[in-house]
Amino acid sequence: MGVLRFLVTVVTTFLGLLAVTFFIGRIIPIDPVLAVLGDRAPTAVVERTREAMGLNLPLYQQFFIYVKGALSGDFGTSVLTTNPVLEDIKRVFPATIELATIGTIIGAALGIPLGVLAAVKRDSFADQVVRVIGLIGYSVPIFWLALLSLVLFYAKLRWVAYPGRVDIVYEYSFTPVTGFFLLDAAWQRQWDVLWDLFRHIILPASLLGYFSLAYISRMTRSFMLNELKQEYIVAARAKGLSETRIIWGHALRNAAVPLITVIALSYAGLLEGSVLTETIFAWPGLGLYITNSLQNADMNAVLGGTIVIGSVFIAINIFSDLLYRTLDPRTRAR
């Protein structure tokens, strides 16, 4: 019964995602026919194209065709690239995954220790500093921080490479295989290319990591404060265990279970929320692809990219929920 309820929830959520993207595509005042043919196309050609695209059908029939195509991976053809949208997404999405993954690693590697420190040193100066760092991460617009960091670290200090994913020198000498450039360069042992890729990705990934850090550190502090109040912590101290073992070996170990969900949600948020970062840093990922498509009224690409990001978000949420249930026996008991 639980499995059936779970499947119904997944299917309903996905159909809701398709419905939202479909009706947004119909509400936006952009005619997909004119986007393909241009404003000066003859009326007869416009009508034939509209009929060929199924836009003359009733709305419910259009939605059925839309769902059928989406389930089969057919998101139409991009006006901007003239390629099937799914092929374009397969080409650009690894760049977004690479950027979001490194950002999440940075956020978790720094956010968890900072959150633990803030909880252990509650109301101290260290706690206030960590909370201010998190508050800035929540409050400062990412586009402003991205532009400021470009001026400082690229234009002034020259510590990082210019916007983009790889230097033009290596565009033709480096042959990616999987689409994940860092892995491909390391596998092929092209260390000069790997260093160049690192200099390009480190700044945008660090910015995303900072915003991830703000969320992860805040939630880690909250979870740790809750764990440090539990009776097993009092018992551990009564037994004479060291504070280091109590904090890192007991409290954080129990707090790690809900932290998995937090990190997963943070990762999903970076996948869907890196549009501005990719645009500012000219990062050729899905966010930049959607932005360019929207500017060129390429609604097939916009909606296709939105569905993919939404589907990944749903999948990550499902995975984190299953992992949470696996690691925490109390949730299985319910």
From TrEMBL:
It is found in: Cell membrane. It is a multi-pass membrane protein. InterPro entries: BPD_transp_1_N, MetI-like, MetI-like_sf. The keyword S-adenosyl-L-methionine does not apply. SUPFAM superfamilies: MetI-like. GO terms for molecular function: dipeptide transmembrane transporter activity. Residues 93-324 form the ABC transmembrane type-1 domain. One of its GO terms (cellular component) is plasma membrane. Its main location: membrane. The chain crosses the membrane at residues 7-28, 99-120, 132-155, 197-216, 255-281, 301-324. Keywords: Cell membrane, Membrane, Transmembrane, Transmembrane helix, Transport. Belongs to the binding-protein-dependent transport system permease family. This is ABC transporter permease. It comes from Ferirhizobium litorale. The lineage of its organism: Bacteria, Pseudomonadati, Pseudomonadota, Alphaproteobacteria, Hyphomicrobiales.
